[in-house]
Amino acid sequence: MTTETESGAPHTADRTLLLVDDDNAFRQRLGLTLERRGYTVAAVASVAEARGIAAELKPAYAVLDMRLGDGNGLDLVGELRALRPGIRIVMLTGYGNLATAVAAVKAGAVDYLPKPADPDAILNALLAPGEAKPAPPEEPMSADRVKWEHIQRVYELCDRNVSETARRLKMHRRTLQRILSKRSPR
Q1: E strands within 81-169?
Q2: Pick from 24, 25, 27, 46: nearest CA to 35
Q3: Residue from 143, 147, 169, 148 nearest 158 by CA
Q4: Which of 1, 40, 92, 184 is least surrounded by CB atoms within 10 angstroms?
Q5: Could you give the domains of the chain?
Q6: Residue range 137-169, pLDDT digits in tens
């Protein structure tokens, strides 16, 4: 049985985490990383799957993508809080704006992070005590790395179609091909 502290934060003994993201590669990498750090991760790709797992698991933590194939991760925040009032929720999105960030926090998310999100940043947000904001990362991603991650995400969203990715990123196809052929920056 899980307990919650007086502040409403999950007790550290319960390390169940619901991960909802429709990007298969990202979900698998993040899920594996979190499992290696001692969390029991239930990783799903849709709102419908998340509802089923959440009702059964009642997780202590959740990491939700904003845009999902069958709905909006923001809709899950209230539902998860109803199942477990002390749940710690972090919203992730590749399409962030101020309005959705405010809506996520008002709904009960503890933080709102842009994709690509570093696992350390996600854990810092999940584990920040009470209403405290997580500290900024000691070694944030370089601008080159953020750009590279964004290009990779759009490339995956376009089913690895170089021409479509170049069109969406408003860059020349050959420039994109050169970027994709290089290793990721640090």
Answers
A1: 88-93, 111-114
A2: 27
A3: 169
A4: 1
A5: 16-127 (3.40.50.2300), 143-181 (1.10.10)
A6: 666 667 887 787 788 878 878 888 999 999 999
